[in-house]
Design goal:
Length: about 290
């Protein structure tokens, strides 16, 4: 039976609103947990509960009566406390703040320093699975960001072509991540204690550039080649410096997990799209999406 009473932390971030909107559209009872008590921009149908995230009692009180708890918070070191509170409150399913690279199924990705917090959360959930079930959602780079922020293609300047640009990778729209979360809650048994994978498209950078030129013949693609092996080497070197640029290094590790061959970043042949209600886009629809971004 589907979970219907759902709480979410991190609902006002970059991804959270897309999850909340889809849950409300599908008729879930959604409670947004927030430290400020402010949930402006979210649907009026939600319940907003102001809590003290540093207080276990406050968390447990807010979670009592909830069937599932979704974490969309950026601070992964805070997730074990959320899991403990969910267990104490009798919550049945925890969906941690994964929503990205293939940490579940690829050891090279798991070893990247940027994902240490997510790895610890996965291990913590597996250790607690006799007390609470979990689902780990992998969706690759948000397609909206890949286009809007220039990681997949840059419509405003030079596109950094990672290695040869021909490798195909999985990308997912923020709205489809919302659909996938709803799908998990609608299929609790099929998604219990495992990783699930969704994608809106499987695409290479060169394919994306060709589509962009097709929908806008005036677009003149500027590119520069990036050697991801060197990027990875430089990122580790930056970490070893006394005053290294940690933020830049961590972003480079994320890029490696998304684009480097061998890092488990394509799941077009085996995914959970059908189960979770993610339909994907045709090439024409991808073109429409890119055209709107010019």
């Amino acid at each position: 039976m589907a979970f219907k009473k759902v709480a979410i932390a991190g609902a006002t971030g970059n991804l959270g609103p897309h999850i909340v909107n889809e849950l409300v559209n599908q008729g879930f009872e959604v409670t947004v947990l927030t430290a400020s008590g402010n949930a402006s921009g979210l649907p009026s149908a939600i319940k907003v509960t102001k809590i003290d995230f540093s207080s276990q009692d406050s968390l447990v009180s807010a979670l009592c009566g909830q069937e599932a708890f979704i974490s969309a918070i950026p601070k992964h070191e805070d997730q074990p406390a959320l899991i403990d509170a969910a267990i104490a409150a009798g919550v049945q399913r925890f969906i941690p703040s994964e929503f990205g690279s293939n940490i579940v199924g690829n050891e090279d990705v798991r070893a990247l320093p940027v994902f240490a917090g997510k790895v610890k959360t996965q291990e913590y959930l597996r250790a607690k699975q006799d007390q609470i079930s979990y689902t780990l959602l992998t969706n690759g780079l948000f397609l909206d960001w890949g286009i809007g922020l220039g990681w997949l293609i840059n419509l405003k300047g030079k596109t950094q072509i990672n290695d040869n640009g021909n490798s195909v990778h999985s990308f997912t729209l923020l709205s489809d991540v919302g659909k996938a979360v709803a799908g998990i809650l609608n299929h609790p048994e099929e998604t219990k204690n495992r990783g699930v994978y969704v994608q809106t498209v499987a695409l290479s950078q060169n394919q994306a550039l060709k589509i962009a030129q097709k929908v806008n013949p005036d677009f003149k693609a500027e590119t520069e080649k990036v050697d991801l092996a060197q990027v990875e080497k430089n990122a580790y070197a930056e970490l070893s410096k006394e005053n290294g640029d940690i933020g830049s290094a961590m972003l480079d590790f994320v890029k490696i997990s998304i684009f480097k061959d061998g890092y488990g970043n394509l799941w077009s042949e085996k995914n959970d799209n059908e189960l979770l209600g993610v339909k994907g886009l045709s090439e024409a629809e991808i073109g429409d999406l890119i055209a709107k971004s010019f």
